[in-house]
Structure formats: structure tokens, C-alpha cells
Amino acid sequence: MGNQVVVGGNDPGGLHVFDKNNPKQARKISLNRADIPMGIVDAGGGKIYVGAYNPTGARLYLVNLSTGQYSTVKKWTHELYLRSMAMHEGTLFFTTGGAARVFMLENGSVKELDQAGVEGASLGYSIAASDKWVVVGTEPNGTVAVYDRAAGSIPLLVRKVQIPGVQTIDSMTISDGFAYFTARSDGDLYSLNLDDPASTPQWQGQPLEVEEYRSIQVVDGQLIAVGGSGAVVTANVNEGVLSDVVATPLMDMDSPGEVWGQETAAQGITHFDDKLISFGHWNMTVTDPETGDYQNARVPGEVKTTTKANGLLYLGIYPAARIYTLAPGSTNVEFLASIPGEQMRPRAITTNATDTDVIVSTRPAYGRFGGNITVFDAFTGELKRQLVKPFGNDTPTALVATSDALYVGTENYGEAVALPKSQAGKARVARMGVDATSGPVWSIIPVSGANQITSLVLTEKGKSQWLVGTTDNGYVFIVDPSTGNVKHRQRVGSHADNLSIVDGRAILRVDSHLYEGDIGLSEVFLFKISDGVMRLLDRAPRTDRSITTIEVGSGRANALHAYDLKTSAQARRIGGKDRFDVAINASRTGFGKSDNVIITNYLAYADQATAIPLSKMLNAPILLTGSGDLDQRTLSEVKRLGASSATIVGGPPSVSETVVNQLRNVGLTVKRMDGKDRFEVAVSVAKEIERLGGGKPQNIYVATGLIYSDAVIAAPAAAHHDGVVVFTADDHMPLFTREYLGSRSDTPITSVGLWADTAVKRSGFATRTLSGKNRFEVATQVARTDFPNAEHAYMANGMAYADAVVASSLASVQDAPVLLDRASPLDRATSSYLSSAKQNRIVVTMVGGPPSLSVSNQLAIRLMVN
């Protein structure tokens, strides 16, 4: 086109026009924002034809390069791609994709050629024309269709040849009665004698493994082909035979020329062998993160997904749908396996729990629906099994393998044709048999309206495992992996993806920005780390809390960033309409299943506080009951937990035999820990903890049993330090407590609060004292002293013992301190503690509804510590 070079960009609707005399001053012609130019030919007179992909239908444009104005020649409804174009003597020939079709534009009229030539294909991928012939190459059935232009006004289909083992005819040209074309998956060169109807395609070699060629032409007896990896292939041409075939990477040429523009869309990033590896088109860059030294190497395609196992990096590569491995210290990838069928784009890859199998999910060829899951031997590449379209028209996009299951997230997507509206917005999460040995055990739609599960991880919350995922419509969701029940879903933006759990913290992209935060069972709290537009991220091995990201460049190279995650204290809430609900919600937050439960009277705070170290020993929640009858909500929670054993703390006046029988009637064995008063009950529980632990406690914490605040503050510390809690009667030492302390004189004693300190010292025992002017100071003193590196704390109203006991129970299971405060505002002691604790990235869980701990307190904590 004279001195102008026109390039179709992957940015929305972009044509970039370069002047050969001043290439740095490129100008842009904008088409429809949804367009992606796929083909360009010279229309003459300073105009070009542009074929474009558009999600609402392919477009053919006529563009005036001087003015930038354009007109729509034709728009399609069902075909989304206008993939390839060829102009010869004023007639334009072109192909579409969705269902492959072939057209010609002559004298302003669009006519269709015989569709039988491309029948069964989803794309007319390449086309060439001469004065006598029109030749079309297809995908995914690797067919060459030959049309005779001399047969009439519309070229006549005279031959159709399918090449065994070939999926795609990439690019083609015609010279002296021969068609020359490139073919994938292997990147082979072929020739075909068009004048001999009995001829078959002749293999002419494989210059580069699995190359995708973007253009091919014959100039002055020499074939020139340009590959997607930036390599140029040249060969001498003589009546369909190629000789002296040479492939030269662009950067290895003596005079590669200057760079006019560059692509900034990285394909992937990962850490392996103490190196940072980033992937592009048919290329990877291996960088030493300490020195910045790097090495470029070719890979046979676009790396779409990776996983690490057996000391190797496994790579899923498009468009050949193959699995390769990379060994430490090497930049040469090794072929492992090919994915059979019309599958082209690996979407996710993982290994099974024993790392003996590689499991990969794939998206099909353009115009097809329904992806497969394929399992290979991780060492030999032997095909073990393939599940064909296990989710119908959906494609598996996320895989999590465990020792007893394979968890899968899907997408509703058609590569070149939109999925029917009735099937859209229904992305699923499913549990399949281990190593994909069987279809879905359960399958759910976790978020209505989501077209894609963009990421899926298995993590621990409390003592249970949960599936956590993200969606393309901006949700984070949590699913019980055993049942498929959705525990929580919360919208965090318009699009969320790239979720990973780093040292217990959630790292993800939200609307292309990097976020960190906590994903709880009842709330998701995130905050932005960077304003940059992040394309990819990966956990870095430098520290437990390091990640590396690629930030999308604007007219420049992508930028690499490394982050050490150190921030983010948070405030989240566990509430309920009454103390029974709060205890149940706390149980649901901390426990998926539990063999044991502890039952106490909802008014007996001393029994509840005594039971807290026992709850940690048994890994059991504390649930509440009335004295005469078991609350039905509590009974339902016992059943949900799947408990087989119940420990009742308190005598029959607190928890009656009726409650015992109700528990036995649902199949539980019941044991009671009691005494004539709270002091004897506490000693009884302490001795039970000793029995379960196989010896005397490591520490004894003493608090007054007549004021609940000191008791609930002491209990998590006792649990954290393998101890027990016993009580004084304010500054008086009860006989049971005195005898217990005396019989364990070699065990360290900690007095929590001034009342206990006075009673212990009067009785002649040595003690460490943790105290303060009020209960708020006592709580923060214990937190600072006994939990110096706490990353989690539970907070309750210091004037409402029911919530405080529940908070204390949860804190003990999580090895966390309990904080007490008023409804509003935050006490100075609490504020001071949280300000200093933010360096530990502390998460604060507030137990109780807004009347107990105000929303303003919750917001104040978030703002103060972040």
C-alpha cells in the first residue's frame, strides 16, 4: 500500500498505520470498539478491506486510509470471525468462522461459494487466489478445498482433500499452479499441484516444531513464511518442491530492522528453579530475579497454563494442545503428550495427589462447544483416560486435585460462536471422582449470572477445608467440598480472578487491580495493593508472603513487580439474634465437621470459660442450652457437625438429664463434668484435660470465678499454652482450687486480674501477673504478653458475657487472644493494641451483632489498622 503499512491490533477496534519513512509516528484508525481486525488486503485507491471479529457478528469494512473513515460492506449474525482474505484482479475472496463459509466480493456484490468445500469445519482459516484457482484451508479438520474460477461466475468446488493428523491449514499462497501452505499441529510445509486433479498434498518438511505461520508467499522463486514466534522461513521453489529450507529467528538475523511497535500482552508468569519465567507468543523469558539477567528461548506455542511437580514444570500449550515439561537449569522444553480430539486450548493443568498423573482441561476448536478432561502419566505421557464433554457445552477452566476427589470449575463459552442465552450465566463447580475416574458427584451453580469460574482453590478455614473461587462477574464464593453447599458469596467488583492463598491470605485480581484480604465464611474483606493494571500474578518463593505480578505496559514493555505482603488488619463479624445463634454461627465459622461437642448452660459463664481449654483439646465447639430442654437450634447444629460424642460441663441444675437423654436419642455418647460449685467444676475439667493430654498441664491460669471477664480473657491463653483455668472467689482461694494448685506446685501459675493475683499470693503460691486498670486493659495485656505475634484476635462486648464466652471459645481453637471492648467507641487500650498489631496483619473477628459492637467500631478498626 505504497509507503504505508497497516497492522490490525488486538486493542479494541484498532488499525495502526505506519509510514515507512517515519515509522515511529504511527496513527490509529478506530473501528467499532468490539472489533478485532483479523484480515487486511489492499483494495486499491488508498483503501483497504478489513475483516473483523465481533462478538455480535463478523464485519467486512472498506477503510479509507487517508481520512480514516470506513463503511460496512457486510455484517454477519451467526459467524463471528472474518478470518482470512485474498484479493486477485479486483475480486475479494474471504472466509468466515463459526460454521466455516467462503465468500467473494465482486462489483459490490457478496456471493457465497459452495459450502461443501468447508463442510464440517468451524473456520475457513486461510485462503489464496490466482487467475484460475481459489484455495481454502480449514480448522479443525485440516482440509484443503480447491475451487476452479474458470468454471463460471462463481468458482466451482472441484476438489477437497483432508490431510491426516492435521488440524489447521494456517496460511497459503499460489504460485505457478501450485498451492504452498503450512499446517498444524506440527508446523509442516506442504505443496499441492492444482493442475493435476489426482495429486495429493506433498510434505515439504518441518522447519520449526509446532509453528503457527501468519503469512506465506513466493517472491522471485523463493518461498518466504513468517511464523508466530518471529521466525522467518525461506526456501527455494521449483515446481512444488522446496529445497534449502532455512528457519531464522528474527533476532538472529544480521539486520533484523528496527522495532516499530510491540505487543504488551504477556501470556503467563511462574517461578521455577529459582527463576522467574514469563511467557509470550512462542517465546519464554527466564530471568534471574536477583541479578536481572535473562535468557530468551522458543517454546512451541502459547503457554496457557502451568503446574509444578516431580521437580519439573509442566506446560499446557496452545494451539497444538500439547503438554511439555521443563527441567531445572534448562531452557529447552520436552514433549510429553498430545491431547486427542478437536481440543486446542489447554485451560487448566494440575497433578493428582501423588504427582503420578497430569490432569489437563481443554477448550475445543473454534466454533465448537464443550471441553474435555484428559489424564496422562506424569512421567511417560501415556494417555490414561479422557472424559469427553463431561459438562456438556461447558469447558472446565479450573482444577483442584486431592487424594479423594477432583474439583472442577467451568465456563459457558463458545470459541467462535456465542453460547445460547439459555445456557449462559450458569458456570458450575463440581466434585468428580479422584483423578477424573468418574463424572460429577455433585455439581452446583455457585453464583447466578457467572459465565466463568475464573479460579478455584482449596483452603482451610478453622479446622475444615473449603473450596474458594472467583467468577467473571466479580464474586468470591465459598463451597463445602463434601456437599457442594455454598457457605457464602459476595460481590467484590465487576470481574475477579487469579485467586491464590498466600500464608493464609487471599491474593487476587479485582477489575484488573491487585487486592489482598481475608475470605471468611461469612464476609470477604479486601483492599487494593496497587492501582496498576495487573495482567498476571504468581506466588514468589522469596518469602512466604511474596508475590510477583506483570503489570500491563502502555506502549512499552510489561513491568514486573514484586510485593511482600505485610499489611491488612481487618474487622469481620459473627452475629446472631441471640446468644444461641451466636454460638451456632461461631461453630459454623470454625468447624465444618466435628466428632465432639461441648454443651453448657447459656447462663453459666464460669462453666463455659472452664470448658474453653477443653474445647481446644477436643477440637470441639461449645454450644448452649437451657437447663431443662435442649434448644432445637443447638440440636440441629449438633446434627450438622456429625458429632458422635458430647461433653456436658456443669451439674444437673445447669444441664438436666432431659438434655442428656435428648443427645443420646440422636446417637451421641454423653459424658458430664460437674461438681458442687463452679470451683469444683473447673478443677474437674482441668483434671480431664490432664487425662486427655497424658500428664500435668504446662501452665495453670487462675482468674476470679465471680467476674466473667477475667475468666474469658484467661481461657484462650491457657489453651494456647497447653494449660488449664481454675477459679478464685475474688480475693479468696476456694478449697478445691487450693488443693489443685498445691498438688501441682511445679507448674507455672499465671494470675489474670487483680482479684486472682491477690488470692494466689495470699495462699503462698508464686505467680506471674497479667492485669490492668479495667477489663479492656487486662485483655490487651494478655494479648501482648502471651500472643506477641498474633495474626488473629476475637473481640466481644466486655459487658455482655454470652458473646464474650463464644469469642473466647473461638479464640482458643484458633490460638488467638480475645479482646473486650464497649459497644462504642473503641477503648484506648484496644486501639493502642490494634495499632501495634497491624504489623502482624491481624484479623479481628467481632462476635455479636451491631448492638453489642457497633458498625462504627468495625469501620474504625479497618481504617485504623490499614
Helix/strand layout:
Blueprint: E1 4-9, E2 14-19, E3 27-30, E4 36-44, E5 47-53, E6 59-64, E7 70-75, E8 81-88, E9 91-97, E10 101-106, E11 109-112, E12 123-129, E13 133-139, E14 143-148, E15 156-162, E16 168-175, E17 178-184, E18 188-193, E19 202-205, E20 213-219, E21 222-227, E22 231-238, E23 241-249, E24 268-272, E25 275-287, E26 294-309, E27 312-318, E28 322-326, E29 334-338, E30 343-351, E31 357-364, E32 372-377, E33 383-387, E34 395-401, E35 406-411, E36 429-432, E37 440-444, E38 453-461, E39 464-471, E40 475-479, E41 486-491, E42 496-502, E43 505-510, E44 513-519, E45 524-530, E46 534-540, E47 546-551, E48 559-564, E49 570-574, H1 579-590, E50 596-601, H2 605-618, E51 622-625, H3 632-641, E52 645-649, H4 657-665, E53 669-673, H5 678-693, E54 699-704, H6 708-720, E55 723-728, H7 735-742, E56 749-752, H8 754-762, E57 768-770, H9 775-786, E58 792-797, H10 801-813, E59 818-821, H11 828-837, E60 843-847, H12 855-865
Parallel strand pairs: 49-60, 50-51, 50-52, 52-53, 54-55, 54-56, 56-57, 58-59, 58-60
Antiparallel strand pairs: 1-2, 2-3, 4-5, 5-6, 6-7, 8-9, 9-10, 10-11, 12-13, 13-14, 14-15, 16-17, 17-18, 18-19, 20-21, 21-22, 22-23, 24-25, 25-26, 26-27, 27-28, 28-29, 30-31, 31-32, 32-33, 34-35, 35-36, 36-37, 38-39, 39-40, 40-41, 42-43, 43-44, 44-45, 46-47, 47-48
How would you characterize the overall build of this protein?
The chain is built from twelve helices and 60 strands. The protein is α+β, with helices and mostly antiparallel strands and 866 residues long. It has four domains: 136 residues, YVTN repeat-like/Quinoprotein amine dehydrogenase (Methylamine Dehydrogenase, Chain H, 7 Propeller), CATH 2.130.10.10; 179 residues, 7 Propeller (Methylamine Dehydrogenase, Chain H); 113 residues, Methylamine Dehydrogenase, Chain H, CATH 2.130.10.10; 295 residues, no CATH class. The longest helix is centred in the C-terminal third of the chain and has 16 residues. The mean pLDDT is 87.
